[in-house]
Amino acid sequence: MQIGQSDKTFNLGSLRIVRVRTPSSVQKNKNMKESNEKKKQQLGMHIGTASAQLRKNILFDLLKQLNKNFCHQCNKEIQTVKELSIEHITPYLDSDDPKKLFFDLNNIAFSHLKCNSGAARQTKKTKHPSWHSYKKGCRCNECKKINADRVFRYRNKLN
Prior knowledge:
- The chain has 159 residues and is α+β, with helices and mostly antiparallel strands.
- It contains six helices and four strands, in the order E-E-H-H-E-H-E-H-H-H.
């Protein structure tokens, strides 16, 4: 499409609206695409992904400085940024006011990614560590050991 040509036409009754791309909007779009491509090339990932990683690294560093890098689920230390997960203490989905609960900072805790994934959408808390916690999805080392011991006892009972 050439600059100055109509891009879209809208008809609203007797009113006809034509959107025309101006030289500045075309150049701005081109510059933005080139800038994003350059960032992607140099960072090895999309700028949005890189920004999210940076925010998570900053958050983890602050948690360590404040000695708050302990899992809400298993109370063990979160040692690496890859293990870090933000958790909603009370699930916001299907609540009376999901938007309010989602953004409520008093409803936020930090946990190991494995512990949080295992506890997803659980409303009833189980004793931890336990086989029931493992059964409901917790994959922390203690729950995995309890499950392995249970499987070992069960297999020995069969023999």
